[in-house]
Amino acid sequence: MIYPIVLYGDPVLKKPAENIQPESIDVKQLSEDMFETMYQASGVGLAAPQIGKSLRMFVVDSGPLEDDDDSEDFKRVFINPEILSYEGDEWSFEEGCLSIPGIRADVFRPEIITIKYLDENWEEHIETLEDMPARIVLHEYDHIEGVLFTDHVKGLKKRLIKGKLSNITQGKVDANYKVKLPPKLAKR
């Protein structure tokens, strides 16, 4: 099932998500649906709040970013994740977000993280990630904490994107995937 992507301005994107209890939902089916939704929108990560579910869950697949066959396959389901540590220097990279179409900005994030999470089979993992996998996970982890990449943007760049963000909250958006307007617009 392909879900519509919740757009900037929807309150679900700004509140911390809830832990998932075993057997409370079918996490295997939800993860399959989230991967399908993410691939349809040409994304590399998708958090449950982005499909309107305030749950501590996200999926990632760096495959679309890979430019050679020698790179490590990084496709995972993260349920109730907890970042245990941050290491290394922060580095900048231009990020975008399916919930904020048409806007990109440089965001500084640490090089290395260690994260504890459950997978779709409820098996616990502790994994240390570096570089792009760490960045993707941190971006999605922010979503389940109620933080958007634009919250990391400061100064002039923040002022430059303010009008574009306002347009998204008003439904003025161009996305090549199914979107869900913020609640105040959906009622019109």
Architecture overview:
It is built from four helices and seven strands. It is an alpha+beta fold and 188 residues long. The chain has one domain (5-186): Alpha-Beta Complex (Peptide Deformylase), CATH 3.90.45.10. The chain has a five-stranded antiparallel sheet, sandwiched between helices. β5 (105-118) and β6 form a beta hairpin.
Keywords for this entry:
Peptide Deformylase; 188 residues; alpha+beta; 5-stranded antiparallel sheet; two-stranded parallel sheet
Sequence-ordered SSE layout with sheet pairings:
Blueprint: E1 5-6, H1 27-40, E2 45-47, E3 57-61, E4 75-95, E5 105-118, E6 124-130, H2 131-144, H3 155-169, E7 179-180, H4 183-186
Parallel strand pairs: 1-7
Antiparallel strand pairs: 2-3, 3-4, 4-5, 5-6
The largest sheet is: 5 strands, antiparallel
Physical arrangement of strands within the biggest beta sheet: 2-3-4-5-6
Mean pLDDT across all residues, rounded?
Answer: 92
CATH superfamily: Peptide deformylase
**% residues in beta strands:** 25-35%
Mind telling me the CATH class?
Alpha Beta
By CATH, the topology is Peptide Deformylase
Question: H/E order of the elements?
Answer: EHEEEEEHHEH
Tell me the number of strands: 7
In whole angstroms, the N-to-C terminal distance is 26 Å
Helix fraction by DSSP (H/I, runs of at least 4): 25-40%
State Rg.
16 Å
Structural class: alpha+beta
Number of helices: 4
Tally of distinct domains: 1
TL;DR?
The protein has helices spanning 27-40, 131-144, 155-169, 183-186; strands at 5-6, 45-47, 57-61, 75-95, 105-118, 124-130, 179-180. By secondary structure, the chain is of the alpha+beta class.
